[in-house]
Amino acid sequence: MLLVVKTVSLKPRIRFKFSSIMSWPGPDNVFFSTSLATYLDKKLLILLRDGRKLLGTLRSFDQFANAVLEGARERIVVGDLCCDIPLGLYVIRGENVVLIGELDLDREDLPPHMTRVSASEIKRAQKAEMDATLLKGSMRKRMEFLDFD
Question: Phi and psi dihedrals of 131, rounded to 5?
Answer without folding.
Answer: -60, -40
